[in-house]
Every structure is written in C-alpha cells, then in structure tokens.
Design goal:
The complex is a heterodimer. By secondary structure, chain A is mainly alpha-helical. Helix content of chain A is about 40%, strand content about 5%. Chain A contains 19 helices and eight strands. In chain A, the strands form four sheets. A two-stranded antiparallel ribbon of chain A has the order 1-5. A two-stranded antiparallel sheet of chain A has the order 2-3. In chain B, the strands form 15 sheets. Chain B has a 22-stranded antiparallel beta barrel. A five-stranded mixed β-sheet of chain B has the order 10-15-16-13-14. In chain B, strands 3-2-5-6 form a four-stranded antiparallel β-sheet, with no helix packed on it. The chains are: A mainly alpha, B mainly beta. The interface between A and B is large, with 117 and 96 residues.
Chain lengths: ~500, ~1000
C-alpha cells in the first residue's frame, strides 16, 4: 500500500515523453515562441504563465507596449482602475508597479523556456533519443531560434531595466539565485549570441512564417547597435547600418499600402515586409493582450467598431496632440500613416476621458479587402504584430547616415518609406533631413509599435525639459522628470527574492 | 423528588416474587417512555410505556436497575412490601459524564486533556437548516462559521482559531463516522456537505488544539470536526416525523439611486446624448429579481431493534426556493444505520449507508450585480424593433446590437438562463469492533469506508439571450466524479491496574485513504447543437492522491486525578517526493483534576476544577495540488495554440515545480481550565493557545530565470496565531416546571505573519491578495511581515474641512513628493479579533423557547459596491450607456473610481440574532399513541451593525454583489409514536 504513494499524473507528461519525437520538439518550440504570444496554457485566460499579475494583462506585447508607449507623447490611456497603469503616463512609477513586474518576469519567462529547449536539444540528448538526420538538423535550427528569442528578451531587459540577472542553459533550475550582470556585459552577451547564431539560423525568408531566421538576428543586431551608445556609452551607428542593410538586401519588399501592415490578414498581405511577427488568431490563439488589446483598447466612446473589425470597444488608448501634429492635416492627411479619429478634440484636460485626444485606428482586426474576420464575434484579434519589419531597417540606415553626415543615403532611405506612405513617388519626398526630423519620421512610421520610449531616450528627450508633451510628468503642459526614470526599477518582488540584485539608482 | 438513598432497604432473606409497578419521570415530572428496568444479576427486564408506566415481577429482595440514556442510572432494592416504586431520573450532568468522540476512539469528557468542544443535538441551532456545519454557528468559542451566501444550500467558511495558512487551505478536516472527507468542491453542488441531513446528526466534536487534533496528523492544522450520526439504540420501535415549512424574505437590498434621483442627476450632469437615453418609467430592479421564497423540510425516521438488530432508517426531503428568482434546491436523502452485536456482545458492528440526491436549479447570480447597476428609468420590456431578437427585453444597444460592455437586463439574465444540476452522493462505512475473548482489555477496530459523489449539469442560454447572441454560445455541460476509499485498523488496550491506582489506555493503528477525482473535458455548444464552438480541453482533469498513515496514542491516568496523553502519527502523502513524503506529528498533554484532591473534596461551591496543558505538532497539505513536485509538461488548450506557417500547434509548457515541496507544520501549545460551580449549575472553560505555523506554503516571487514561473508555491514563511477562549454555560433556573439555560462564549485571536520570503527585505510590501472588482488585477489586501493576514493595503484618503473625501487626494505617507504604490499602507483587517456567541433556552411546562446570537468585533469590510459603482462615471458611462450607481456617489461626488482608498474600508462589527424558536409540546392527543409538538421559528432575526453595506458578515472581507441572506419564518410540526 505504501507504493500507492508514488502517484503519477494521468495526462501531463515528463520531458522524456515530450522530447521523444520531432513533433514533441515542435510543440515545445511552440511554447518557446508562445511565451510572447499568449498569457498561458488556456486561451483566452485560465492557466496563466505568471503570478502576481492579472492574467489578461500579462502577455509580452501588452506589457512591453505599456512600458514603451505610455510614458511618451504618442500614447495616453483612460484606464484608471488598473493600479499602476496611469503611473506610466504620469512618470511616477515605483518598484511595486504591477506592469513593470509583469514585463520583467515575462521576459525571464521566455528566457527560461528557451533555456529548457536549448538544454533538451543538445547533440547528446538528440542522440540518446535516437533523433538524427533531417529531424536532428531541423531541431538544431529550432535551438538556434530559441537562442534568438532569448537574446531578444535580454535586449528588452537591457533596454528597460539595465542591469539584470543572467541565466542560460547551464544555470541550475530550482531555487538558485542568478547573479546580476551589468548592462555592458549583457550588451556584449546579446551581441555575441546573435553573431554566434547567424550561421545557425535558416536563410532569410526560408523559414516558416512566424519563425526567426538570419534576417531576424540581423534586425535585432541593427536595433541593438542603434542604441549602443545609450546602453554602453559607445556609439555603434555604423554597425547598425551594416546589419540593417543586410536585411534590406535579403529580398524583403515593402507592403504597398502602409495600412495593410496592421490588418487581420497581414500574415498574407504584408508577408514580404514582416521579418518576424508575433502571431495571433481570434479562434486559436486567444488572449486579452496582443493585438486584441491594441484593437479593442483603441476603440471607445461612440466610435464605429466595424471599421476596426471588432465587437468590443474597451475605450483606452489615444494620443497626445504632439503625434498628430507631426502630420499635416492629420485627420485627412496625404500621408496615409495618419490614421486618427477625432472624438472630442485633440486637447486632453482629463486623461481619464477617452473622447479627449485623438484616437488611432492604425491596428485593426479587419482584412485588407475590408471584409470581417470570421472570428470577429469572438472578440479576439487575428492581426499579427510585426516585431521586426523592413520599414524600421530603412529608418536605422537613415539615422546612421545622418549621424555620419551622409545626407544622400539618409534621404534615399527615408524617401523609400515616404513614397509608400504618400502612395506617390513625389508628394512626400524630402531633399534633406536633420537628426530631429529622423526622430519625427520614426514616430510617423512606427508610432504605437513599441519604439517611442527607446527613441526618446536615444534623442535625449525622454526625461529632459527640452521636449514636453501634455501631462508629461503629471503636469498639464508637461514637465521634466528625474533623470533616473530613464531606466525602470527592478521589481521589488525580485529584490526580495534574490539578494544578488542591486536596485537601479534612486529607486 | 425521591432520592435513591431513601429507597435503599435492608436486605431480607425472603425470596418470593412480587409484582412491582410504578411510573418513571424526568426531574421536571415529564413521563419517560422507554426506560429499561432490569432485575440486577438477571437478564429479566422490561421497559416503561409511553406514559412512563411499568410493571415487573421480581424476587421481593431483588434490586431493580433503572437505565435510560442521558440519565443517571438508579438502583432500587425492594423490600417485600413495596408494590409501587415511582422514580424520578436525574439527567446526567452533561459536562462531566458525556462521552466525546475523539479521533480513533472516544473518551469521557472529564478525562480529556486537550481542547475539545462537544455539541449535541439539543444545542444545535434550530430551524430549517440545510447543511450540517450551520448547526454550529456561534456555538463554540473559537469556531467561526460564515455562510457563503443566502442561496439555498450555500457552503460556509469554517475557521477554527484563525487561519493557519496563506496559500493552502484554512478549512478544518471533517470526519463523518470515521471517514475523513476531502475538502474539495463538487461540480453541480453548492456544498458537498449538504448531502448529510442535519437531522441525522447526533453530535459534533470539535478538536481545537494540536494535542487532540494531531492524531489526524497532516490534515489537522486547521482543527478537526468529527460528526457522529444517529444510530439505532433501543429495542422498541420509535417513529418520528417532522415537517417545517416557511418563507424566506430579503431583508435589505443595495442602496442605489431611485429613478427620480437618477433622472435628476442625468439631467443635471449629462450632455444631451445621455439625457436622450433616459427611459420614462421607474423600475426597482432589485425588487424585480427577488421573491418571497418557500421552503419545506421534512424528515421521517424509524428506529428500534429488529430481533436484536438495532436499526435506524431516515428519509428526508427538502425543497427550497431561493430568494433570487429561479433559484431552487431539492434534496432527497436517506440514511440507514445497523448496529448489531455478536458473540456475546464482544463484536460490535456498525454499518452506515447514506445516500442523497440533490437537484439544483442555479439562478444566474449575475442578475444580482446587474440589478444594482441597471438604469432605473427603463422598463423590463421594450417594443424597440432591434430588441425583438433579444426576447423583447430592454437592453442597451450599440447600433442594432447589444452593447456588450453594458450590464445586461437582470430579469432577462434570470429568465434566459437555465442551469440545472443533479448530484448523487453516497457515503458508507462498516465498522467492526471486536473485544478479544481471551484478553478483554484488548479490542480490535476495523473501519472500511467508501465515499462516492457525482455531480453533473448543464448551463443553457435561450437563443435570444443578448450576451450570447453574438457568438451563439448556448449550452455548456459540466460534470465531476469523486471516489474516495478508506481503510483503517487499530488495536486498543485498556486496563486498570488497581494496585498502582493506574489506568493505561493504548491505541495503535494504520490508515489508508485514497482520493480519486475526475472532471471530464467539456465543450460549449452553439445554437445549432452539434457544432462545438469552444473546443474542449485535450484531456480531462483527473487526479489521484493517497495518504498512508500509522498512529499511536497512550493515555495514562494515575489515581483518577493525573492524566497524561501522548500520541504520534506518521503520515505519508503522494503529494510529495520520496524525500519529503513522510511527516511526523507528535503531541503530549496532561491534566490535573484538582477537585478530586482532598483539600477540595466536598466543596459546596466548586464542583469541577481541571487544569489542562498540551503541546503538539500538526500538518497541513490541503490546497496543495497533486504532482506539484514532479517536473512535467502541460499541453495547452485549443484556444492557446501557436501558429507556425499555416499550422497551429498546441504548446507543451514546462510547469514550474518545487521538488522540495512538503507539509506545512503548526507547532501549538494550549493551556486550559475547566470549572464547575454549584453542582455544575455554572460551568466554564477557558483556553489559551499559541500556534506557530512554519514551512508555510506560500506562493512567493522567485528569482527571475530560476524556475518556469515568477511565482512558486513553496515552503517558506511563518505565521503566528495566539488567542484566548472562554465558554460559560449556566442554568440560572432549574425547577419542576421551569428550566432556563444560558450560555455564552467569546474568543480573541491575534494573527501575524512572521516570515514571508526567502530573503527578508524591509522594502518588500508583501504578497497581494483579495481581488476586487472595478479594474484588472486589483487587490485590496496583502500578506506582509508583522501584519495581520487579512490586512487591507490602501491609500490614506484626504478629506476636506467638511469631512468629505477629496477625489484622488491621498496622503503622501512616505513624504517623497510622489504619489505611487510606496504610499500604500496597512489598515485594519477583515478577520475579526473578537468573536462571540450567545444562546439561551427556556422550558416552562410544555413550552420551550430558545434563541441564539453570534457576532464579531473589529472586523473590517472593503465596500466594493461603494468603491466600484459609487461614482458618477457609472451613471454616465463613457461607453455611452446609462447605469445606476450606489447612493454613496451623492456623498462623495466622485467621478472616477478610487478603488484603493481607505475610505471604503469600513468597520463591520456586528451582532446577529440567528434564531428565535418557540415550541409547544402537546403530548398525547385524544388518547392517540402519538405525541405532537409544534414549533415556530425565525432565522436571521436581525443584525446590529454600523456597517453601511448589505451585510457585515462576508468571509472574504470584500462586499460585492453578495447574495443576500434571507430572513426565514417557519412553522414546524413533529409527531412521535
């Protein structure tokens, strides 16, 4: 009878079962990717990956977006009842902020899942499981992709938090206390990882949609180098341009219509521009985050939901007037990137009133041809989020060129994007471009795609008093904030759990 | 009344038989039927008839023994001349001679060394009560029982001496006739304990301290409640039928704006778009969803001996409507108990079988919140053509479709939803107790039990139900099946050693219990009936866990005055790894009966004086999921797949695990005093305790990157409870025609979290808990070191000169010039430090009356109704519909919700009169053989409180859309023959 104490689960399986077959590897890989696409094991919610945070708000994209968009001129949220959310906009967050805890741990969650996959994909493990030949070769590609995703999340952590703990596939699992590494060391780690897997990943545009290839690694390297000066004090703009150009030469093509980058069937119509996307499906990949959050959260008041292809308006996100000001005649601009809706004017007297400030319907759950998704009534979006797309690479090339004094190269790169934006080879064409104009052009092209905080920091406009927007720092006309807010604080949960961690200065 | 001493007559040698007759009454003069009269030393005997009369032929020098359960036996030695012997039997002094069921045995109450409260039938809360635990409400010091809601058959939160756990369970172990129940819920059932008809219960034993509870080892940290059901006893057939019928009414509803107030506010504050949305009627939505609800509770039982086979058979039928329309519970239950003895009474057999069937129709409780929120100027139905597709009910529209963020019409929610469940439960056991013929001090006890339950049901929405209209979801079936097995065996050796004035009582045994639980995967079907719209999970939720234990107990009594008890249990649980599987739970306790010492013997004032002290270790494993120590991968559902190319893949997720997971352990001491005065007319029990729980299971943050989640359930943290309890029972009046009993109890418990995380970081606020409505991820309570476990964690509200709260203004408590989470502070607690109970019963001739109260002091409640809907934004909703608001909106004038303000944490101290009961016992009517009694009963009579919300007694400490507890008036009739 004492042997009855060895009860084993009826259906859940151990790693030896999961990794017995190539199909099992694929399903484990789906989780390594799914870490940034879903909130847990049961869509839309129910078996969350993370603790201590409302599951609906705990997906990667929603948390990353809050951290990157809300403390900037591009975005305002009306939601007052999610404790800590308004603090992003008011720039007074603390180390107890639930959303910061969320993005910090979501990033580590994906790193831990990647580590596990890498461990299980070693040559010895494959050999011991009798997996060889093409199957083994495919799994080696998958392991390289897991390394890419891990590098991507370390980049997120470096950008948001600076000095963070470090774990890889050799770190023990359980109650260990990972050591903290400084931002420069981690920068070098991400750089070396991306270079190391360059040769291990599939050739650009040869992998399945939704999976990383060489171009994804180049695109991340370009983004990393673009911000190298912020992260390490050493500028590496030239290197950024090198890797951005590698992507540009890899055969990607801009989607003719800008709006089609952000529609329900962008996996089809924008396939040639998207380098790597987070994939969503209204029926099969459900959550309250991702593009569902973006589409539903951007619709409110008496806005027409059908234009956005949704059945639920959550009345949350709008923009301060600074973003539409970047466009001439923003409500009816020749620049097709301006996709604003005027509910009750561009002025915001009360951040919590959705109708104040222009809304944006850049992200939609409607197909390129205007028809509805079959999943529309479920209330979840089909639209994929382009994590890396060709457009960004042109902007990296342009910025590096301006900084190097090469106006021709800069103008050429920017004009490629402007021709698409104006759907005209002549109308939006620039003849020269300055550094501040690069920042503006990035906002026009990339607004609401999760770049703004990083960009403002690189251009020294984030905490400083030289550039203000309504309600920056909690003041109606905007004010500067303490310089330490350039980094987020390490969550207090982590400080209490790991004595190796030293909090960021002044938090 | 005659005293036994007066009847002892000098023995004679004459041995002729005489006929003796007489009448036996209780001390109030009421006839006692069924009293057995034996000729001492023979097997000859008889018993009294229904009028208490008897007649017996006996040798003229014989001694007659009068025996009746619950009364002190009397012996009368006859002298030849006595033809008539009338006897008045004295009730056994409860506090002294009562036999209390303890784990794996029973003990005379006077020999207990630990803190055990026994509650028997006559102390139960009266009235139509559907679930056993509610019989105990307010009856035992240190035991808090809070019903979950006013719904028929609702479950209760039971807490003994405060909670010992944070993340694992806080419910005590419930043992029914030797079978420990699993604490889980059952699909389709509000309360799995409701399968036991309260009228089948003979007694409860509440094992409060570690020295008594630890014999149940790893499940005893939260105390143990042992339920003993009624058995067949006498050999004369008795039939009893009782019926009580009544009506339940809602006492109070949530205070919201009236139609007139609502209209005035919208006209004054809303722009034209909102004003145009106003309706032109006046509907009290809460009135529309509640009703006066009928309840009938009937039970029939028959007991007696059939050719020396004592039996008891009972059948009960309960039908209870809810005060929320469409709510109904119907229960049919039956129980059979057979209690034969064999081999010259050396083998006792108890067979108990209990079956119940419960049919529920669950009302859609979403209507409660909707009724509070719904615009009072709208009518129930509308002739708007766009609403025809929704059954003609008024609903808020967005274009021609339902505005899916708005509250749904509450009446439609009730009428367009049908959730029916059917629950079958069986629990049975066979217990064999065998006294070894060659060694009568040794007995062997074997108990085999089986506990089976199955619940199933289906939720069906009408095809025109607005909230379902878009996605066509219609039908969601659900089910659950549980099979629990028990086997236990123990030996007991009990011997008096006269020479050394000692008694030795040794018990040692083995127990095995297995829990199997299966929840099949379920899907949601659409209108068309065949197509599955939400795909089922890939596999059912099936779990099994097993507990194997060895236990031993030693009781040593010296000179009847000095008692010592020691016990040990070793528990093995399948929930833990081989290294941590076994837990050991020792105890030691002692008692000193001071009143038996020479210096106190013969005291007129003090009739009982016992000092007790005990220490013990108990464990806790409830609330820990199965297989949590094993590294496993869990497959995601079909709605959580990830897309590569054109294919979707179900994900294999590595599950966070702690290989070192083990028991929670509580180390407790208890000291107590049992006192009796004036021949126990006044008895008092005082207990003081201190409990330290360590290896507390806590879902704590773990270092980023160290596991497959950021939170892990692991053994870290400590909690301390200390308290004092006082129970006093008095009999102020005890006369022939008039008896008055008065009892009260009061308890004080203080609880503090003493350790929480691996690393003690003074800046770490703690683990948030207590989810509230109004935002996403909002918690209002927190576990923090140095604070109570139910502490609220809030901002300190700033008030203006008139005492009105200023919207959004909070005290910058850390003086850093920034208002953020660092300004939150600990404020009060939802857990009452002081709880009290009061009960009284009065018997006057054929009248009886009883009442019961319970209350608590200094518990606080977060008024989530005020905080969530007491704001103007709820009336003029930005999503362009109108909604009603709490009247508190007029007091604060808040526009936006201020969910984390301490303004909403309100004192919820209260005193509730649970019960008022008056009965009249007619006795025999018109020479029939039946006795008739009638009772009138009111439950939930009144509540005295300063709390401003609906009900101050909500176990979570968060008041939001609470199903109101009704006031119930019932009339009962009982017939015995």
């Amino acid at each position: 009878c004492i042997n009855d104490l060895d009860r084993q689960p009826f259906y859940d399986v151990t790693s030896n079962v999961v990794y017995k077959t190539p199909e099992g590897y694929k399903q484990a890989l789906a989780k390594v990717y799914g870490c940034y696409g879903t909130t847990g094991n049961q869509g839309p919610a129910g078996q969350g990956d993370l603790g201590g945070i409302d599951e609906g708000t705990s997906d990667f994209f929603r948390l990353f977006w809050d951290a990157q968009q809300l403390p900037t001129d591009e975005t305002v949220t009306a939601w007052n009842s999610d404790p800590g959310l308004q603090d992003f906009h008011l720039m007074n967050w603390s180390s107890d902020n639930a959303f910061l805890k969320g993005i910090y741990y979501r990033s580590f969650y994906q790193i831990t899942a990647a580590n596990e996959f890498i461990r299980e994909s070693s040559d010895e493990k494959l050999a011991s499981r009798g997996i060889s030949g093409n199957d083994a070769a495919e799994i080696k590609y998958q392991a390289a992709e897991a390394r890419f995703l891990r590098a991507f999340q370390y980049w997120v952590l470096i950008d948001l938090f600076g000095n963070v703990p470090f774990v890889d596939e050799n770190s023990p699992l359980g109650a260990n206390l990972p050591p903290q590494k400084d931002r420069i060391t981690l920068f070098k780690y991400v750089e070396s990882e991306l270079k190391a897997i360059e040769s291990l990943l599939k050739e650009p545009r040869t992998n399945e949609y939704g999976r990383a290839d060489k171009a994804a690694a180049w695109a991340l390297l370009a983004r990393l180098y673009l911000n190298a000066e912020v992260y390490t004090g050493d500028a590496k703009y030239a290197e950024a341009a090198v890797y951005a150009n590698k992507v540009i030469s890899a055969g990607y093509i801009l989607t003719p219509k800008y709006k089609n980058l952000f529609v329900a069937d962008n996996n089809v119509v924008a396939k040639n521009e998207i380098i790597l996307s987070i994939n969503y499906d209204g029926a099969k990949t459900q959550s309250y985050g991702g593009t569902t959050f973006l589409v539903n959260g951007s619709v409110g008041a008496d806005m027409d939901k059908t234009i956005s292809g949704t059945s639920a308006g959550w009345g949350g996100h709008r923009t301060t007037k600074n973003l539409p000001k970047l466009f001439e005649n923003p409500l009816n601009s020749a620049d097709k990137r301006a996709m604003f809706v005027d509910n009750a004017g561009e002025e915001i007297n009360n951040v919590l009133v959705f109708s104040q400030g222009y809304a944006s319907i850049k992200f939609k759950n409607i197909k390129a041809d205007g028809t509805f998704s079959p999943n529309m009534n479920l209330g979840y979006s089909d639209t994929d989020f382009p994590l890396f797309r060709l457009g960004e690479m042109y902007l990296i090339v342009a910025e590096a060129a301006v900084r190097a004094g090469n106006q021709t190269a800069a103008v050429n790169a920017v004009n490629v994007l402007r021709a698409r934006a104006f759907e005209s080879q002549t109308e939006g064409k620039l003849t020269s471009i300055s550094l501040p104009q690069i920042l503006d052009e990035r906002s026009r092209e990339l607004y609401w795609e999760g770049f703004r905080r990083t960009d403002l920091i690189r251009f020294h406009q984030f905490v400083e008093g030289t550039y203000l927007w309504p309600w920056k720092g909690g003041a109606a006309t905007g004010s500067s904030v303490e310089s330490h807010r350039i980094l987020y604080p390490i969550p207090s949960d982590e400080i209490s759990a790991n004595p190796n961690i030293i909090q960021n200065k002044n938090y | 009344s005659p005293n036994v001493n007066h009847l002892i007559i000098t023995k004679t040698t004459k041995k002729a038989d005489v006929t003796v007759s007489g009448n036996v009454t209780d001390e109030t003069g009421m006839p006692l039927p069924g009293v057995s009269i034996l000729v001492k030393g023979t097997s000859k005997g008889t018993s009294t008839d229904v009028d208490g009369n008897y007649s017996i032929v006996a040798p003229s020098d014989a001694t007659l023994v009068f025996q009746f359960i619950g009364f002190v036996s009397q012996e009368v030695t006859l002298n030849g001349k006595m033809a008539k012997v009338n006897i008045s039997l004295k009730p056994e002094s409860k506090a002294l001679t009562e036999v209390v069921v303890i784990g794996y045995g029973s003990k005379s109450k006077k020999d207990l060394t630990g803190s055990v409260a026994a509650v028997t039938e006559k102390d139960f809360l009266k009235g139509p009560i559907s679930s056993p635990e509610q019989l105990l409400t307010g009856k035992v010091a240190g035991v808090s029982i809070i019903s979950g809601s006013g719904a028929p058959g609702a479950s209760s939160q039971i807490l003994i001496r405060g909670g010992n756990s944070i993340s694992a369970g806080n419910s005590p172990l419930i043992v029914v006739d030797g079978i420990p129940l699993d604490n889980g819920t059952l699909a389709g059932s509000q309360n799995p304990m409701a399968m036991i008809d309260p009228k089948d219960i003979e007694s409860f034993s509440v094992l409060k301290d570690a020295s008594s509870a630890a014999i149940y080892g790893s499940r005893a940290s939260n105390g143990v409640i042992i339920i003993t059901t009624k058995k067949g006893t006498s050999d004369k057939m008795k039939v009893n039928f009782t019926t009580s019928n009544g009506v339940q009414q809602v006492v109070k509803t949530v205070d919201v704006l009236s139609a007139a107030q609502f209209r005035d506010f919208v006209n004054a504050s809303g722009d034209q778009t909102y004003i145009d949305k106003l309706g032109n009627t006046s509907t009290n939505w809460q009135k529309e969803i509640y009703q006066s609800a009928f309840v009938t509770d009937n039970s029939f039982n028959i007991s007696g001996g059939l050719k020396k086979l004592p039996y008891r058979l009972s059948v009960g039928y309960l039908n209870q409507n809810g005060v929320l329309k469409t709510d109904n519970m119907e229960r049919l239950n039956s129980a059979l108990s057979l209690n034969p003895k064999f081999f010259n009474n050396s083998l006792s057999v108890d067979v108990n079988a209990r079956y119940s069937n419960i049919k529920n129709r669950f009302a859609n409780t979403a209507a409660i919140g909707s009724a509070v929120r719904f615009d009072p100027t709208q009518s129930i139905y509308s002739d708007n053509a766009d609403l025809a597709k929704y059954g003609g009910y008024f609903q808020w529209l967005d274009g021609d479709k339902w505005q899916n963020q708005s509250p749904a019409n509450p009446v439609a929610l009730l009428n367009q939803n049908n959730n029916n469940s059917n629950v079958d439960q069986f629990i049975g056991n066979a217990r064999l107790d065998y006294k070894l013929p060659f060694l009568p001090e040794l007995r062997a006890n074997l108990n085999v039990g089986y506990d089976y339950s199955k619940g199933e049901g289906v939720t069906v929405f009408s095809t025109d139900a607005a909230p379902q209209y878009l996605n066509h979801f219609q039908r969601t079936p659900y089910a659950q099946e549980k099979k629990n097995k028990l086997f236990d065996f123990y030996l007991n050796y009990n011997k008096d050693f006269k020479a050394s004035k000692s008694n030795l009582d040794l018990t040692g045994g083995y127990t095995y219990q297995d829990f199997y639980n299966d929840i099949p995967n379920s899907a949601t079907y659409n209108y068309e009936g065949t197509e599955v719209t939400v795909q089922p999970a890939p596999f059912p939720t099936t779990t099994q866990n097993t507990l194997v234990s060895f236990f031993g107990r030693l009781n040593y009594t010296f000179n009847e005055k000095y008692l010592l008890q020691a016990s040990m249990r070793a528990d093995g649980s399948s929930k833990f790894s081989k290294e941590n599987r076994w837990g050991y739970f020792p105890t030691i306790s002692g008692a000193w009966k001071v009143n038996l010492e020479n210096f106190m013997k013969g005291s007129e004032t003090i009739s009982d004086f016992k000092v007790r002290a005990g220490w013990g270790v108990t464990g806790q494993q409830d609330g820990i999921q199965n297989y949590k120590y094993i590294p496993v991968y869990a497959l995601s559902t079909l709605t959580a797949q990830y897309q590569f190319g054109d294919n979707f893949y179900q994900m294999y997720r590595p599950v966070a695990y702690d290989p070192n997971l083990k028991w929670e352990q509580t180390d407790a001491i208890n000291v107590g005093l049992d006192l009796g005065f004036f021949n126990n007319r006044i008895t008092a029990t005082i207990d003081a305790y201190r409990k330290n729980t360590s290896d507390l299971l806590n879902n704590i943050p773990v270092p980023g990157g160290s596991n497959f989640s950021n939170y892990l359930l692991t053994n870290v943290g400590s909690l301390r409870n200390k308290g004092i309890e006082l129970t006093v029972n008095t009999i102020p009046v005890s006369k022939k025609d008039l008896n008055w009993n008065l009892g009260f109890n009061v308890s004080y418990n203080e609880n503090e979290v003493t350790k929480l995380t691996q690393v003690t970081d003074p800046n770490y606020p703690g683990v948030p808990t207590g989810g509230i409505t109004g935002g996403t991820g909002s918690n209002i309570q927190i576990f923090s070191i140095g604070h109570k476990s139910g502490a609220f964690y809030v901002y300190q509200q700033v008030y203006d000169a008139n005492g009105k709260p200023i919207e959004g203004a909070y005290v910058d408590r850390n003086n850093d010039g920034i208002r953020n989470e660092k300004d939150l502070y600990h404020y009060k607690s939802s857990i009452a430090p002081v709880a009290l109970g009061l009960n009284s019963s009065l018997t006057y001739k054929k009248w009886t009356a009883s009442m019961a109260f319970h209350g608590s002091v200094n518990n606080y409640m977060y008024n989530n109704i005020y905080s969530n809907i007491g704001v103007e934004k709820r009336v003029l909703d930005p999503l362009m519909y109108l909604g009603n608001a709490s009247s508190n909106m007029l007091a604060t004038g808040f526009n936006e919700t201020q969910l984390q303000s301490d303004y909403y944490v309100q004192n919820a101290s209260f005193l509730r009169m649970d019960n008022l009961n008056v009965g009249y016992h007619f006795g025999k009517l018109n020479r029939s053989i039946a006795n008739l009694s009638i009772t009138a009963n009111v439950q939930n009579v009144f509540v005295v409180t300063k709390y401003k919300g609906l009900d101050p007694e909500i176990s979570s400490g968060i008041d939001n859309n609470f199903y109101p507890r009704p006031r119930t008036f019932t009339l009962g009739v009982g017939v015995d023959f």
